[in-house]
């Protein structure tokens, strides 16, 4: 480790009862860089998905539409809350969920959609958000693998109701092991 990294680690270890102002600073800087109102740090991207689904009220009997091709954590986070993941097919060239496939899966039990921005490529979020608004659904964007990518000139993760980033060791920005961030422009959801 470099001296600044060692110094910061020792500061945390030696002052563990004084709070962590550097987390608040990181949240503020992340929100500023993303151009969103709120950034909430968490211990992993997976925990961020759990928290996001909690905030939108996923519970037993609720269906959440997710891509058929994604990491297992997207489905696990739905199951953890008692919900049912509903798998929608992905486009064969982009491997991303499409608005057309989402619409085919909406039922009276559908409460949310999880989109996944994969390897720097965003889903077509504008029509997905229109579908969500029309059907009173919330959208959680799993952006673990697309930090600072863009969609129609906007940063990925700034369109959905809640978006989740991961700082796991293989991601674009790493915390040296685990870490995550939830971002939103929705005060009620961010607060919850």
Mind explaining what this structure looks like?
- The chain contains seven helices and nine strands.
- With 192 residues, it is α/β, with parallel strands linked by helices.
- Helix 3 crosses helix 4.
- The radius of gyration is 17 Å and the shape is globular.
- The mean pLDDT is 90.
Question: What can be said about this structure in brief?
Answer:
The protein is an alpha/beta fold. It has helices at 3-14, 21-34, 45-55, 72-80, 99-105, 125-134, 187-191, and strands at 38-42, 63-67, 84-88, 110-116, 138-142, 150-151, 154-155, 162-166, 180-184. The chain is built from 7 helices and 9 strands, in the order H-H-E-H-E-H-E-H-E-H-E-E-E-E-E-H.
What brief labels describe this structure?
192 residues; alpha/beta; seven-stranded mixed β-sheet; two-stranded antiparallel ribbon; globular
> What is the N-to-C succession of helices and strands?
HHEHEHEHEHEEEEEH
- Annotation field: number of helices: 7
| Percentage of residues in DSSP E strands | 15-25%
Q: Summarize the main sheet.
A: 7 strands, mixed
Quick one: how many beta strands? 9
What best-fitting shape do the alpha-carbon axes yield? globular
Alpha carbon gyration radius: 17 Å
User: How does the helix and strand content classify structurally?
Assistant: alpha/beta
Outline the low-pLDDT stretches.
none
* Range of helix content: 25-40%
Spatially, the strands of the biggest sheet line up as: 1-9-8-5-4-2-3
C-alpha termini separation? 36 Å
Mean pLDDT: 90
């Amino acid at each position: 480790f470099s001296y600044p990294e060692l110094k910061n680690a020792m500061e945390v270890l030696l002052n563990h009862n004084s709070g962590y102002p550097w987390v608040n600073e990181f949240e503020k800087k992340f929100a500023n860089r993303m151009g969103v109102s709120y950034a909430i740090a968490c211990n992993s991207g997976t925990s961020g998905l759990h928290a996001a689904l909690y905030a939108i009220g996923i519970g037993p009997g609720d269906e959440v539409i997710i891509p058929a091709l994604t990491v297992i954590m997207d489905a696990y986070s739905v199951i953890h809350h008692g919900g049912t993941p509903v798998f929608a097919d992905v486009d064969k060239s982009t491997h991303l969920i499409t608005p057309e496939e989402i619409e085919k899966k909406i039922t009276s039990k559908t409460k949310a959609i999880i989109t996944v921005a994969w390897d720097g490529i965003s889903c077509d979020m504008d029509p997905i958000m229109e579908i969500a608004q029309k059907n009173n659904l919330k959208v959680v964007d799993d952006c673990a693998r697309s930090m600072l990518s863009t969609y129609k000139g906007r940063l990925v993760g700034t369109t959905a109701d809640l978006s989740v980033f991961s700082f796991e060791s293989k991601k674009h920005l790493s915390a040296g092991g685990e870490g995550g961030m939830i971002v939103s422009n929705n005060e009620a959801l961010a607060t919850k």
